[in-house]
Amino acid sequence: MTSRIFGSGIRRREDPRLITGQATYTDDIKLQHMAYAAIKRSPHAHARIRSVDTSAALSAPGVVAVYTGADTDGVLNPIPCAWVVPDSDVKTVPHPAIAKDVVRYVGDAVAVVVAESRYQAEDAIDLINVDYETLPAVVNPEAAMQDGAPQLHEDAPNNQAFHWVASGGDTDAAFSSAEVVVRETIIQQKLIPNAIEPRSAVATWLSATGELTLWSSSQNPHICRFVTFLVTGVPEHKIRVIAPEVGGGFGSKTPIYADEMIACFCSMRLGRPVKWTETRSENYQATIHGRDHVEYVELAATREGKITGLRTKVYAAMGAYLSTAATGIPTILHGLIYAGTYDIPNVKADIYGVFTTTTPVDLYRGAGRPEATFLLERLVNLLADELGLDPVEVRRRNLIPKFEDGHDVAMGITYDSGDYELTLDMALEHVNYQQLREEQARLRESNQYMGIGVTCYCEICGLGPSQVAHAVGFGAGLWESATIRFHPTGTVNIFVGTSPHGQGEETTFAQILSDELGVAVDDIEVIHGDTDTTPQGWGTYGSRTTAVGGVAVALAARKIRDKGKALAAHLLEAAEADIEYEDGKFFVRGSPDQSKTIQDIALMANLAYDMPEGMEPGLEASAFYDPPNFTYPFGTHVAVVMVDPENGHIELRSYLAVDDCGPQINPVIVAGQVHGGVVQGAGQALWEGAVYDDNGQLLTGSMMDYALPRAHMLPDIETLSTVTPSPHNPLGVKGIGETGTIASTITIYNAVLDALKPLGVTHLDMPLTSEKVWRAIHQRG
Amino acid sequence: MAKIPISMTINGKVHQAEVDPRLLLVHFIREDVGLTGTKIGCDTSQCGACVVMMNGSTVKSCTCLAVQADGADIMTIEGLATDGNLHPIQEAFWDNHGLQCGYCTAGMIMTSVELLQRNPHPTSDQVRAGLEGNLCRCTGYQNIVKSVLAAAEKMGG
Ligand code: FES
Ligand code: FES
To answer: Do A128 and A59 form a contact (C-beta atoms < 8 A)?
Structure first.
């Protein structure tokens, strides 16, 4: 083959509809006789509902119906949590779709209005009068576990949602015999995901047939269908969930929310289509948040800088209820990856999940792994400071040497492949690390403060083997599916169970198929996001779409190729063993003129008048792929910052990401994922944070108050890569969607603290706002 | 609420309607006229997903009443391509992977149209400053900036 389509940065196939305004997102859908829902939300973080008076709202213009918790109680089942980590005493407290007795966060639903128009629905929710008896709030997860803290749920004493302990080696012994121990307290502040498309749902119910159709801005329509069954009781085969165009998710559109279940309820009651779309302010309250840990972490090491142990105690906020994947994030997706790229024989995680009177916490880009990478890489820098070593040198002394086929770590997982030194060397050489350090020293002489952060990371993604998913309490399979259907003219549809929403798999999956079967990319259309037309799958999150779903496409293509060979042998009157395949052609070995193209094969398979004895007509194949392991992408990131001591301003001067996600199907898309991921992580380091007051009011409740990264705040991100294939999947690919976020927060944080070192500042809580930096500098004189 | 008659040209076509005085322009465009390419990403005039051209300059259509646009000449993302040919900025976004989920894209492109009208040869920093009112959560802005610079080159050359 001359130039391979696999690996080429072709333009995306999804873009024409998106750049012309022709794409259809959920809120763009308008059905005949559709009504509009607006949800009345609690203004209190914690309160008992004494009464709800809906009479004024009911008589307001255009109002069709008003429902409260009394209406949904016993009709809608509680919103379930799908990930119950085993052996951790998880309290799966009930989460009613609409609160009836107690509200537990600002944003908890207390009623819904359905009206003829959006404006009328929103007017009417202001006319609902709820009489509350306010109760005390608690927003900090550590405080929530103290004696006397306000209690959220009867069945969860001390607000403890779970307690998960995992360890490998003998950590306590490692610490008691350690030559050096460094400790840190880390606040992983609460983050608001901010997909630019607010969530939206359109539900329509046909009473005659008992069919429920739900358009939902979801990252995983099949899981949504399953949960819709659990909550509404409508059987799964009568539910159709469609995730049309979805405007970003970053994990926040993975959970199944009360809101879309409420839309279903309204449609079922009224026999009309009902649309609900959140406002942005509502999104800040009612769409999940991320992170929110209080962490006590420590590292044991020898005087030579060899790390001997890592130990943590973490209070991880769950918010008011357990959202869909909540318990798995600070545990499986966090503790298991603690050792990162280092050979650490003794590791222990002691994690409390805690209810607080805040918006529930769930998957947000990186989910658990940015926090793990942060604490490890912070501790490594503190160790370097303690030992008077360069932070890169300490890293080098601990890196796991190159491995190609499996490496067991203390926490009991097996990394697939890694060459950590390779990315480190490439990164250091590219930024000219020595020269940067010299520049830093020079600048310090003239009171200019430059800082360098270097992170080595590896992460766990490409979720994952279903057996493991079950073992760790995740209530879903984690395999993926693809059905490839050739039409008589040789064009192809691929139907997949994953549900990309910006990651570009309509392009990369077509590239995989094109590479496998020689069909032009323009002759391929990838269909996803509709449970009625696509095979069962589990969705797009955890950087799994390509590493699992993409492999399913390749495997289905290989089945097509096998059938093609048999059919070609028949048509060419040759033995099947003599048929070779290359570049879209089946030919008789030694005589390439005697050949059939894949299009010839597709035509014959569909017309089917000359098929081999016993062969079924049609050219269609499905594959279901359950990976034998997760994938473990890795890399080295380097940030350089300038800190102005006069005003505390931080300038991100440069950022380099060297990542290894195995072979890249489309390097332009890979780089795009890295850019976006790095900037989201930068957001956490420098600007973002959900701030609550002691009463549980979200003070950063709108885009005016919550600082999202904007174009002028950022430099260009440089991207480089190495290629270490995963040994366990046929394409060798690993996930890349989250690596940027996983690595960048700590890289930038360490760079800033490196800059501040001569000023005596050794700790700051994120986000590193100018004010905080300025105060830290000046408090120390 | 008494309805108010309005008339405006959107993408070259005249639309007349009687609307509530409080109706936002973005809702008029999306719901009444049915052009859903213009998006809504916030309620505080921060995100720029709703940017359209009004009488030749950009406005956040979520921050403008439909009645204020009475008599105006509006262009939305749907009106940018001419005779089936993509505008060079649209083309550049496609060529340079200037979008991922696409939700910010209409606003980004409309803002870029004005940006390049005002400054046909911007530097990268000027593009970044010019996009200050538009949020994207997917791309980290890098390929958006690249797209605008590429479009400038194409349009200027
Ligand atoms: S919707 Fe207009 S600025 Fe956000
Ligand atoms: S491409 Fe998704 S918000 Fe910009």
So the answer is: no
